[in-house]
Specification:
Number of helices: 36
Helix content: 55-70%
Structural class: alpha+beta
Radius of gyration: 31 Å
Strand order of the largest sheet: 4-3-2-1-8
Strand content: 5-15%
């Protein structure tokens, strides 16, 4: 206590820093250092435990006492704190990581009494000065002078005009390379993009949109994006500025140039040059130029400090790795995933610690339906995520949540944080929409998809997600609109063809289905997918032999493209369909063929489901146990796949009450669209369908009828999966069991109408006819 009875104020000093907990301010040599509230609280905990190890658990409990957060959140804030303190990736002077335990502050900390006069920056535009009346007048004058200087400085920074508004977009052009060294071709533009994409303030036109615009201009995809071509792309995309660069030789040195031009008037708005002594220093200088550019257009110092990871620390110091990586991006949008894949693989061979190289390999394998290889490379990227900038870390973390752990709740949280940190980026909204698919939040899918399209009108996945969102809500007219809008913008993805086929199926438009299927035969990446859809359509109407032929053809087409797991998904889907129809022998054959190609999550689920339905409980249980072991965090495995399999196994043991109990955990997730439906179209509403079977087995006809009616009421989800047809048959059985044979007869008749002309020897159909004849 002081003589006046007031408590002594906590003020900490370490190194050049002073910390005022009451005002939540950090000063370095008298200058304010911006910190987020949570980052400041972490610093305070470390200060109060100076030189002692603070465990990660203790830090999270102190900083987030009433909220569950993942460890990645703590790591992100530690990273931000280190940047604020001026640490580099190779010099952790102040904060030391203690492996397996936590962190400690390495510097000595002094607790000092409150000063007689202090200058504290409370914000970027407010400076507080407190002076005791008993002190000499010159201190008052000194404080006033400092206050005036600081205030004027902050006023200038906060009021200067920028030639970019928060709604403007920027086209990043190619760097003109006059050095004769091809290693700089494409490399510098990609490096500058990585640096500028760290900024929440800036919005670069996406590479996909640029390539699409160049195509609409009638220019080849490999056309250099310089001069009039870049200007026209800028105008067509409604952007404000073209940012172009150059590199040239000056003796044994290099000269880097950067220029911002108004794309409409041609006025040069900003320009700078920098000399670089060595080739190895070019990437570092490029990052420094990017930071200065961000400052000049009005981005705050706080934003720069929080989002300015040096290029060589965030990505790779190797120009050759950068060359392969940037070439991969160029090929991706001009030729496709399969052609781009070897280039990204080459980048990681040159630099095995290139996090975004692995992340892109993971993404491309995911696009190609190879989930095992996708997860393997995404996991590597996640392990190296400290070698990425803030925006890229969000992408890597979200990909890891979706493709590796499968934790949908974490994926949703990551995407939401990403969207908050980078409000002008369409990607987090696109990924969040796909997460909400699996969670069954279809209004959310529509909302997030619309946001992604608003941010980037050429973001093709946004149109796919929006159409599916409406389809899953059974709003067919609205589901067709995004497809039409995408066509008007000349955007294309295989999923758009699949959507057109599925909407035509739900409308019973056989001519449109045939037309789309023919179009799919000419599209690599869509041919096997549409052939698989034709197989499901055949199976839905009871033509199981034709369905079997088509599924084998789809698998063959996928294998011809080198996509073994995708082929396995087609076969696993066929196995489930044959099992539901009662063809046990054919089902087992497809299971064996599928598992010989892949043991990916969705393939294994399809195989386990089929084996459980045909009564092979031992093998199904073995596959289920393996799923549980391999995917302990996976939301779909925990809350959809395993409950469904366990319920089927309980039914095989004649324990319907146990089956119903096993499915309780699936209730919040049962309306979701699982990953197993992406290619092998199995799993949609299966927990609901199996629960109906359990109620039937327990003699509870009314409850069973409600479950099967739920399947019939969601045709936009089920589409042409066989459970959609068999739900009519099961509903008939449920009504008869509940004592309403009249309604049962009508349901039987609906089923027979669907299967008019079906293969006569399908066990499900033979059984249905026998039951119906007994009613008459």
């Amino acid at each position: 206590m002081t003589e006046s009875g007031r408590p002594v104020k906590e003020i900490y000093e370490f190194g050049p820093f002073r910390v005022d907990p009451a005002r939540e301010t950090l000063l370095r040599a008298g200058e304010p250092v911006p910190l987020t509230p949570k980052t400041f609280q972490i610093l305070l905990v470390l200060l109060r435990n100076s030189r002692e190890v603070v465990t990660k658990d203790d830090l999270m409990k102190n900083v987030w006492p009433d909220t569950f957060v993942e460890e990645a959140n703590l790591s992100r804030n530690i990273f931000m704190l280190r940047k604020a303190l001026g640490e580099t990736a190779h010099d952790h002077r102040y904060i030391v990581t203690v492996p397996g335990r936590g962190y400690r502050l390495a510097e000595s900390v002094n607790l000092i009494p409150e000063q007689d006069f202090s200058l504290v920056a409370a914000s970027h535009s407010v400076v507080q000065v407190r002076v005791k009346e008993t002190k000499p007048w010159w201190r008052v004058v000194a404080a006033a002078v400092v206050l005036s200087m600081v205030s004027v400085g902050w006023w200038w920074i906060s009021h200067r005009r920028s030639y970019l508004s928060e709604r403007d977009t920027v086209v990043l052009a190619d760097f003109v390379n006059s050095t004769g060294d091809p290693v700089f071709d494409g490399t510098l533009r990609q490096g500058m993009a990585v640096q500028l994409e760290q900024s929440p303030f800036l919005s670069l036109v996406s590479e996909e949109r640029i390539q699409h615009t160049v195509h609409l201009m009638g220019q080849p995809g490999n056309m250099p994006l310089i001069g009039p071509v870049a200007r026209e792309v800028c105008e067509r995309t409604g952007s404000a500025v073209v940012l172009d660069g150059s590199i040239s030789s000056l003796g044994d040195r290099y000269v880097l140039g950067l220029r911002a031009t108004n794309c409409r008037s041609g006025e040069v708005l900003d320009e700078e040059q920098e000399q670089v002594a060595k080739k190895e220093n070019v990437l570092d200088s490029l990052g420094q130029m990017a930071a200065r550019f961000r400052t000049r257009i009005g981005e705050s110092r706080a934003s720069l400090r929080e989002h300015d990871t040096p290029l060589v620390e965030a990505t790779t110091p190797s120009l050759d790795a950068w060359k392969a990586y940037s070439s991969g991006w160029q090929v991706l949008f001009s030729t496709g995933s399969a052609a781009a894949l070897p280039l990204f693989q080459r980048a990681t061979e040159i630099d095995p610690k290139f996090a975004m190289g692995y992340a892109m390999i993971g993404r491309l394998y995911g696009d190609m339906g190879e989930s095992v290889l996708s997860a393997e490379n995404t996991r590597k990227a996640y392990e190296l995520r400290d070698r990425a900038n803030d925006s890229e870390r969000f992408f890597i973390s979200a990909s890891n949540d979706l493709l590796v752990t499968g934790n949908l709740e974490k994926a949703q949280q990551t995407c939401e944080l990403w969207a908050q940190a980078y409000p002008r980026d369409a990607r987090p909204h696109g990924l969040l929409a796909s997460v909400l698919w699996s969670l069954g939040n279809y209004p959310g899918v529509v909302d997030e998809s619309a946001k992604s399209i608003l941010l980037d009108p050429d973001f093709t996945p946004g149109y796919v997600n929006l159409s599916y969102g409406y389809l899953f809500l059974n709003r067919l007219p609205e589901a067709a609109q995004p497809i039409q809008r995408a066509a008007e913008r000349k955007l294309d993805m295989p999923e758009l063809l699949i959507l057109r086929y599925q909407i035509a199926f739900l409308k019973a438009d056989t001519k449109e289905m045939a037309r789309v299927a023919t179009m799919g035969q000419e599209r690599v990446g869509a041919d096997d997918w549409l052939t698989g859809q034709q197989a499901y359509t055949a199976g839905y109407s009871g033509h199981l032999q034709q369905a079997s032929v088509l599924s084998r053809r789809a698998a063959s087409l996928a294998q011809q493209e080198g996509q073994r797991e995708r082929a396995a998904q087609h076969l696993a889907g066929a196995a489930a369909r044959e099992a539901l129809a009662g063809n046990a022998k054919e089902s087992r054959q497809n299971v064996a063929a599928a598992l010989s190609l892949s043991t990916g999550r969705d393939v294994q689920y399809g195989a386990a489901f089929a084996l459980a339905v045909v009564g092979d409980s031992a093998r199904s249980q073995m596959l289920a146990n393996d799923l549980e072991k391999r995917y302990p965090e996976d939301s779909l495995v925990r809350f959809s796949y395993l409950p469904t399999l366990r319920a089927l196994l309980a039914l095989n043991r004649r324990e319907p009450a146990k089956a119903i109990d096993e499915l309780q955990v699936a209730l919040p997730y049962e309306m979701g669209w699982p990953g197993s439906s992406s290619v092998g179209f199995i799993g949609v509403l299966y927990p609901v369908y199996v629960r109906g079977e359990a109620y039937l087995a327990e003699g509870r006809g009314s409850e069973a009828a409600a479950e099967f009616q739920k399947v019939l009421d969601h045709r936009g989800l089920v589409v042409n999966d066989l459970v959609g047809a068999l739900a009519h048959l099961e509903l008939a059985r449920a009504w008869v069991l509940s004592g309403d044979p009249a309604r049962g007869k009508l349901a039987y008749q609906d089923f027979f109408a669907l299967w008019n002309g079906a293969d006569p020897d399908v066990p499900s159909l033979k059984q249905a006819r026998a039951e119906y004849s007994q009613l008459n």
